[in-house]
């Protein structure tokens, strides 16, 4: 397939009503997809239909609406199972998103299994939500964190990984795709190595699920976390995949309704997974919306989406990288959908504001990856991140807006 042709062919912006909204009188080029994606009509409608036609609480009702809501929630769990190719729907726990999924593993598996002297292996690429829960766990258990460094290109130092992985390593927690640099990590290979060393593996899939096919069985990981809102679904819903044997052995995290088998003041017994980890009324409408989002991307095909975004990333990397005074941060060989950069003498936040006035929405800052910014000796970057509805006009708007910023700062055509 010709990548450039494909970039023009996937013309799906019409499915996303918000993209038709002019911003500051300009056509919106929404390039902040790493933070959250926009929602297609199919998702908005699925949530609306749920509230208009099927809303009730799940599990506890004998009446028609409750049965319907329960069925929709179960169907949504099956959609997530299919998306990740998990063996069974019972391996899918609904959460608020990636952050809550990782906190669940840290609080439940972590507190039950880690002790002083144990090590958790992270990487320099991690988002704060795959760092801080482990720090909290270390404070409680006496375990310690070790960190795989990255090269100047933003790739993991694999020799260092092998050295850091040892008999004390109990857990490897690693992102599949870096939200700050776009680096795609070889997670299947790293999982196999971690398993050989006796560690279990959690993958942060927040930036991966919308951009490539994910197969937890092929990766071989023990846990996989993602957020629906980065996959064209609603906010406040996401999931944790956990291997059945691990989930079955894990103690509850939050207590409340729906996660119990019996309750007495003398003590309670708990439901099997996944209910054991879903205390209280869940985000039922969110799950329904997420299922609609999964149907939407699967109907287009994640392979097609990946090819389309790759073509856009290549075009943007060449065009932005060629601007005198621009420095790309993160030039890994395998990258997904994210272009981080600095423009000489223009602070990323100023650049973000200038781009906004041109209708170009990007993110500026540390991207919740402060240790990674420290590694590169920078306070932050400007970041453009692509999704299935972006097109070449969005890339051209980004480039034109950067030129405009340089004109305003009188730095066009100059290098540092
Ligand atoms: N991990 C990565 C790699 C992310 O990009 C994000 C969101 N920026 C998260 C975790 C956290 O996701 P959420 O805020 O949806 O829980």
What's the gist of this structure?
Residues 30-398 form the Aminotransferase class V domain. The protein has 14 helices and 15 strands.
Strand order of the largest sheet: 2-8-7-6-5-3-4
Count the domains: 2
Instruction: Write the H/E string, N to C.
Output: HEHHEHEHEHEHEHEEHEEHHEEHEEHEH
Overall shape: globular
Query: What is the makeup of the main sheet?
Result: 7 strands, mixed
User: Hey, roughly how much beta strand do the residues contain?
Assistant: 15-25%
Oligomeric description of these chains: single chain
Low-confidence stretches: 1-8
Radius of gyration: 22 Å
Catalogue the ligands: 4'-deoxy-4'-aminopyridoxal-5'-phosphate
Shape-level CATH architecture of the largest domain: 3-Layer(aba) Sandwich
Q: What fold name stands as the CATH topology of the largest domain? A: Aspartate Aminotransferase, domain 2
Number of helices: 14
Share of residues in helices: 40-55%
Question: What structural class do helix, strand and pairing data support?
Answer: alpha/beta
CATH superfamily of the largest domain: Type I PLP-dependent aspartate aminotransferase-like (Major domain)
The chain-level mean pLDDT equals: 96
CATH class of the largest domain: Alpha Beta
Total number of beta strands: 15
Quote the distance from N terminus to C terminus.
39 Å
């Amino acid at each position: 397939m010709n990548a450039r042709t494909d970039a023009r062919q996937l013309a799906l912006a019409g499915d996303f009503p918000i993209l038709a909204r002019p911003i500051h009188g300009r056509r919106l080029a929404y390039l902040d997809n790493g933070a959250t994606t926009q929602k297609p009509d199919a998702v908005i409608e699925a949530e609306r239909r749920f509230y208009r036609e099927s809303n009730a609480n799940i599990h506890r009702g004998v009446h028609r609406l409750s049965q319907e809501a329960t069925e929709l929630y179960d169907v949504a769990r099956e959609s997530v199972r299919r998306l990740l190719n998990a063996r069974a729907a019972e391996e899918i726990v609904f959460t608020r998103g990636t952050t809550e999924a990782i906190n669940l593993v840290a609080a439940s598996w972590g507190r039950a299994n880690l002790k002083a002297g144990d090590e958790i292996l992270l990487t320099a690429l991690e988002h704060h939500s795959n760092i801080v829960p482990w720090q909290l766990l270390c404070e409680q258990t006496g375990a310690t964190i070790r960190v795989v460094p990255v090269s100047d290109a933003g790739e993991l130092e694999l020799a260092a990984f092998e050295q850091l992985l040892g008999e004390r390593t109990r857990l490897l927690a690693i992102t599949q795709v870096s939200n700050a640099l776009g680096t795609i990590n070889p997670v299947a290979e790293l999982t196999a190595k971690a398993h050989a060393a006796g560690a279990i593996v959690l993958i942060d899939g927040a930036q991966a699920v919308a951009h490539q096919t994910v197969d937890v069985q092929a990766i071989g990981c023990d846990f996989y976390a993602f957020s629906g809102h980065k996959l064209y679904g609603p906010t406040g819903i996401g999931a944790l995949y956990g291997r059945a044997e691990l989930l079955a052995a894990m103690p509850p995290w939050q207590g409340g309704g729906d996660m119990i088998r019996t309750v007495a003041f003398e003590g309670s017994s708990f439901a099997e997974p996944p209910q054991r980890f879903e205390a209280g009324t869940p985000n039922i409408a969110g799950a329904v919306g997420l299922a609609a989002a999964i149907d939407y991307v699967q109907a287009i095909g994640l392979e097609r989406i990946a090819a389309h975004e790759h073509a856009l990333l290549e075009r943007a990397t060449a065009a932005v990288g060629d601007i005198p005074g621009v420095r790309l941060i993160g030039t890994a060989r395998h990258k997904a959908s994210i272009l981080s950069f600095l423009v000489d003498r223009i602070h990323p936040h100023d650049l973000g504001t200038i781009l906004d006035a041109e209708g170009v929405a990007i993110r500026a800052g540390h991207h919740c990856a402060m240790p990674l910014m420290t590694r590169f000796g920078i306070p932050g970057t400007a970041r453009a991140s692509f999704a299935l509805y972006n097109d070449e006009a969005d890339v051209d708007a980004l480039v034109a807006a950067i030129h405009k910023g340089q004109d305003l700062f009188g730095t066009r055509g100059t290098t540092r």
